[in-house]
Amino acid sequence: VHPNVSQGCQGGCATCSDYNGCLSCKPRLFFVLERIGMKQIGVCLSSCPSGYYGTRYPDINKCAKCKADCDTCFTRNFCTKCKSEFYLYSGKCLEKCPDGLEANNHTMECTSIVHCEISEWSPWSPCMKKGKTCGFKRGNEVRFREIVQHPSARGNPCPATTESRKCIVQRKRCQKEGKGKKNREEKRKKSNKDESKETRQESKGRAARRQNREQRENNNKTQPKKRKAPNKEQDLAPVDTAH
Length: 243
What we know:
Structural class: alpha+beta
Keywords: Disulfide bond, Glycoprotein, Heparin-binding, Repeat, Secreted, Sensory transduction, Signal, Wnt signaling pathway
Distance between the termini: 187 Å
InterPro entries: Furin_repeat (IPR006212), Growth_fac_rcpt_cys_sf (IPR009030), R-spondin (IPR051514), Rspo_Fu-CRD_dom (IPR043601), TSP1_rpt (IPR000884), TSP1_rpt_sf (IPR036383), TSP1_spondin_dom (IPR044004)
Mean pLDDT: 81
Subunit structure: Interacts with the extracellular domain of FZD8 and LRP6. It however does not form a ternary complex with FZD8 and LRP6. Interacts with WNT1. Binds heparin. Interacts with LGR4, LGR5 and LGR6.
Domain R-spondin Fu-CRD: 11-110
Strand order of the largest sheet: 1-2-3
CATH superfamily of the domain at 8-65: Hormone Receptor, Insulin-like Growth Factor Receptor 1, Chain A, domain 2
Protein name: R-spondin-3
């Protein structure tokens, strides 16, 4: 037993000393030495602090220091995060990334180089000049493509995403907006006029047919009835002369 061992330790210590702090820890806690000035004090923690990694043994769980360039590590030879100005690659902290990789200053890791990827060209647009497709002979047509994958810092840059070329069209006059509107209005009025004319003609036809029907009925009422023709067979009946 260590000299000056105290009873009733606090802070997760199983045994402790007034001078050296914790000497052993309760189950599942990690023992680590913290330097305070020229003196080291033992403490018991549920997990190891930054710059240390934990190792469990049958009799004690200990925190050991990572390598000098590691900020956090899984074991002494496998870093999970590097200190500033170092880049993490396969568990190691490097000042410069290997060939074929580039330094990512955001994650502080060595990552693969990503080149630009673009889609296929779109079809050519209609031939235009100053936003119009009429009133000219020579104009321009354009096509586009989209960026599918943006490149990384050392990746191949993206080429142009738009392309233009000269074009020739059959020259035609632009229809004036006011004139076109006037023509549409005239067509609408003419259509309404034709519909009204057809409606009037149908109304006149129905009125004429009704008038003819009424006239026939009046004529039938005023015409005298025809007398029934006498029966000739009765008129020619034989006369009885026996008396």
